[in-house]
Amino acid sequence: MSMPTVPNITPEIILKRNEVLNLLLTSIALEEIGLSHLINAEGQKIQKITKEQSLSINDALALNNSVERMLRNVIKTEMLLQFRLEDILKLEQMEIHHYHDDSPDTPDIPDLPCFKE
């Protein structure tokens, strides 16, 4: 059996800065929608299980632990999304200051990771 060959595909994608920022914001919004679906599913799970007449204390505790684990993961993801949003807002502010700040006293900072805030 031979290895498959993959054609050399080098698409040229050219996006303006605003388009990139909008795509980043859209990706955050889509992740937020996904998280809202997870939270809704957890609520439906709680409703379905609690409607059962024979819910024991152990079953209730197991349900509580399951929901807590899921919500903890949702909260962790929300925190990461908040960091991403703040970074995007900083990029937008940098763009605004770059275009509106013609002050010669402001040194140009190289676009290197060590110079990031």
Give descriptors for this structure.
117 residues, mainly alpha
Explain what you see.
- There is one protein chain.
- This protein is mostly helical.
- 67% of the residues lie in helices and 0% in strands.
- The chain contains two helices and no strands.
- It has helices at 17-50, 57-100.
- Helix 1 (17-50) packs antiparallel against helix 2 (57-100).
- The longest helix is centred in the last third of the chain and has 44 residues, at 57-100.
Give the C-alpha Rg.
24 Å
- Could you tell me the number of beta strands? 0
Strand content: under 5%
Uncertain runs with pLDDT below 50, 5 residues or more? none
Give a quick account of the main beta sheet: strands, pairing sense, barrel closure: none
Ends: how far apart? 51 Å
Shape: flat
Mean pLDDT: 85
What is the H-and-E element order? Answer: HH
What is the number of helices?
2
Secondary-structure-derived class = mainly alpha
Percentage of residues assigned to helices: 55-70%
